[in-house]
Please model this.
Amino acid sequence: MEKTPKWVDVALIPFLNLLIAFVISGIVVLLIGEDPIKAIKVMVSGALGSPYGWGYTLYYATNFIFTGLAVAVAYHASQFNIGGEGQATLGGLGVALVCLALPWPHWSVALVAAMIGGALFGAAWAAIPAWLQAKRGSHIVITTIMFNFIGASLLNYMLVNVLRPRGAMDPATARFARETYLPTFHDLPVIGQFFSKSVPANISFFIALLACWLVWILIWRTKLGFEIRAYGRSESAARYAGISPVKVIMVAMLISGGLAGLMAINNVMGQGHRLVLNSVEGAGFIGIAVALMGRNHPVGVFLAAILFGFLYQGGGELALETTIPRELITVIQALVILFTGAFDNMLRAPIESFFVARANARKEA
Amino acid sequence: MDFGTIVEILDSAVRLGTPLLLACLAGLFSERAGIFDIGLEGKMLMAAFFSGAVAAVTGSAWLGLLAGVGGSMSLAMVHGLASITFRGNQLISGVAVNFLASGFTVLIAQSWFQQGGRTPQLSGHARFEPITLPGASAVKDVPVIGPLYSNLISGHTILVYVAFAMVPLTWWVLFRTRFGLRLRAVGENPESVDTAGVSVIRLRYTAVAITGVLAGLAGTYLATGLAAGFVKEMTAGRGYIALAALIFAKWRPVPALGATMLFGLLEAISNRYPNIDLGVVTLPIQFMQAVPYILTVVILAGFIGKAIPPRAGGQPYVKER
Model:
């Protein structure tokens, strides 16, 4: 049987799906009596038109790279990790504990320790659902949803009853020491001149890029990655080849949770400088959209994360400058998930049959 | 704790359990037909908004109900289209439905009412009013039975009674009618249903539509019965708790009543006593809020009886060629 060309699969279909999502979002904007063209202009200038905008776009994108990779790695093992939100929440707890534990001499030392803390806590939060799936067959989607809620409650408890400094009113940890603050893009040599002083984008972005590369190596260049993909494609074939399902599920989910937890070096250590309630702000869920759009490939995840960073920052500006609430972004996010994920076959089936028919016709001619 | 307080807490448990019960039964129909539905939250939210909005504008709770069911139904059809017609991933579709509702309701609410994503406060006939059952005031002073009847059983809105009536009705439909038999079969083994000459697609769409109606009732009750109007994100995870209850009940209607009322009771208790002092340890409110989720994980883990979902759940049906 003829296959469709690769560019159709990785570029054309995602692009068309994205286009539909945006067109429908435009119609929604029209429905609430606003001008979609103006909305796009505000978003573009707000997210890309200034060093300030760029700085925020890249800051959000950093979060989404981590959570997108988290979903993608699990997905290769055919596990739908919907618990990125909870894992990133716990990652925040890990990072905060590390930052507050010792008088760190320099940010670089603190960063290494915080990465370990964040990843460990994130992985631990994925470990129980993973173990239950691997050993007891409990559906990972449901358990990770439940763990999102349990994680939120746990963090709430920790902030209100344990970590809140004496006398403070709001549920948050103490501010971290200055030495743990990560250098922002403004502080960096060369590129620093392009970013204003207040941008939250920080060196976590480069760690996110590194994570993309490492995930690529892991999935496509190692034996473990092969086992993960083999299991993801066909459980029975993988079993027959001697691959242990328990190992694959556990390892893939631990890496996934670890990546989601790593996000906290950006939002907690890099930007917030303390841990507050809901510091994840839905980034764990956006990771689902990012991974779907990026076809679970690190390069795709990176591009999709930049796009969602743009949407997130642009959406914030939209709420400031027009009467369109920032929830428009949630609608766009939902439509992207719907069309690139659930409605994927709507376009894929006719387009693929078109290309297959064309290829067959050529062969006969 | 005197008897009056217990009745009050139980009464509050019924109120808080009702939206869970309706949503749980909604999920029951869909999942029994082999369509996983993690989009209950979104459908409820959509219904809460449209019922609140239309009730606010027209001043009629009944028109609100109609709009609420319509809103929920539109998302149910999106889910049906994705999972039945396009054979997409049902979980991804559910996630999308939840976000769609979460964003859309605030967007439209802000555009229609300019009150920061809420609808105007409902009053009078725009809300479902409590129904006083016959004789409630007469027996009020009879000890034990009096408060139980007049405070706990009487004095709820029509939707509460509908929700409770839905339990035996659901049982009867599922286990005593031909439609119910086919519905269950399509969730376990769609090939057999297809072989018998019954349309899998039609059955599944019907199930998804019933889910839409029931989730619509759940959301409508939130905005026009429990509260007085729609507020942003007012479902607050109830759709997921209903999902938890569904698993807890192992996809059966009568246990669903028990599970949802238990979760309602937990919420009622934690509303009244934020921190429970057990002498040895004090249970913080955050723990009480997490209990439904923890219980669900324990049940799913199979340590207290195994919860086995319908066998064909989550898989799109592809007819053999």
Q: What stands out?
A: The mean pLDDT of chain B is 89. The beta strands of chain B are 276-277, 282-283.
